[in-house]
């Protein structure tokens, strides 16, 4: 396995589907008491596992999460802003816990700047307002996870 992008994609699948058969087997063998993002390369691990760890490095350096459905991302529960290490909103929840990104976007397709600034702390608002919003029917939001 030498294609790092492919390995990063496999790592992403492990992160998104930790209860898959592969996820359960790898967790049992290599990171029983931690999570996949915290695992380091091991000298006694298989070549395939160490290749995955190499691919995971690409995720840690600068992946982007591209989203087509703004209603699928909870602003409080999901990791979606470019805050290093947590990627989470730190503001106390002034809005309903089920609030999604879609509710922060105006009918014209831009951020509801005033609403965002009124309901979230300055730092969170700045992270959010910096995120470009896709246009058209796809409604893509692309967030740098770095």
UniProtKB/TrEMBL annotation:
Superkingdom as given in the UniProt entry:
Eukaryota
- The protein's name is Reverse transcriptase
Species this protein is from? Dipteronia dyeriana
